[in-house]
Amino acid sequence: MNKKLTSIALLSSSSIIAIHIMNRIHTSLCTGKNLLNNSENYFYDWRFGKIRYQKKGSGSPLLFIHDLTIGSSNYEYHRLINNLTEKHEIYSIDLLGYGLSDKPYITYTNNLYEQLVSDFIKNVIGKKTSIVATGESVPFVIMACHNNPEIFKKIICINPQNLYLQNQIPSKQTSLLKFFIETPVIGTFTYHILSNKESIEKTFHKEYFSHPEEVREKYIYNYLEAAHAGGYSSKYSFASYAGKYMNMNIVHELKEIDNSILMIGGEEEKDIKTTIENYKYYNAAIEDFYIPETKHLPQLEAPDAVLEQINMFL
Question: The whole model's pTM is what?
Answer without folding.
Answer: 0.90
